[in-house]
From TrEMBL:
UniProt cross-references to Gene3D superfamilies, sorted A to Z: 3.40.190.290, Winged helix-like DNA-binding domain superfamily/Winged helix DNA-binding domain
Family: Belongs to the LysR transcriptional regulatory family.
GO cellular component: protein-DNA complex
GO molecular function: DNA binding; DNA-binding transcription factor activity
Taxonomic classification: Bacteria, Bacillati, Actinomycetota, Actinomycetes, Propionibacteriales
Keyword field contains Transcription: yes
Short name of one Pfam family: LysR_substrate
Organism: Kribbella capetownensis
The protein's name in its UniProt record: LysR family transcriptional regulator
Amino acid sequence: MSMALVAEDLEAFALFARHRNFTRAAEELHVSQPALHTRIRKLEQRLGRSLYVKQGRQLHLTDTGERLAAFANDTNDRAADFLRTLDALPPRPLVLMAGSGAYLYLLGDPIRRILAKGHELQLRTGDAAATLAAVRDGSADVGVTALTVPPDDLDSDLLQQFPQTLITRSDHRLAGRRSVRLKDLQDEALVVPPKDRPHRQQLERSMLDQGLRWSVAVEAEGWELLVHFVRLGIGPAVVNGSVRTTGAVRKIPVKDLPPVRYYVVTRTDRSEGVHELKRMLS
């Protein structure tokens, strides 16, 4: 087996790991989807390990897959660094991955400053699990995400923290309060994210722990849509305190919910360029 074939396989797997999707990875590699599928299957046979699993409609890397993706990305980066010493390649843009809330409410000004200084930056979006996975496998250089407990295998620096807040219309029964507790939401119909979202799951656990009854007024994807439904009078919502609202909506801290902490996450073996990006975001 030639080294050229090994390099091609690593490049193919790195792209597959980035997209977690055979169709998009095959399009970027300019090969057919069956050809890419065969290449990944042969890699699995060669290693004697599964590299990914299918859960519902999504593909997830196994532990071996994450390690191979990290190795593939590191190998590609070292090759690119070597070629740059020969003036064969321009510097590659650093990759930042974060969720929609972080981009909307935390990272706008830092990103503008970074771009104004002439730095190249590629932006990707993903939830906390996808962001951590991308940082681990090297397909993202830096991640910004909300975490309950930072992972031990990555460098995590606290960026900002916010209280969880109840947002209501000014005519709601709780609108005049300076703070509330979860018990004040007994029997409320709330605007909430979908059931698979960490924020919704934490809220449900907290309400259950206190034996509180509540119901779903409507499920909404994304903070801005939650705020919109509250403004329409569909019901109140518990949101991350970083979420921006208009004067028509009151924000009231919820005293017995933990704060939301955003972290800047990198691998421990980060390069000087990644270290600089992390510093500019913090």
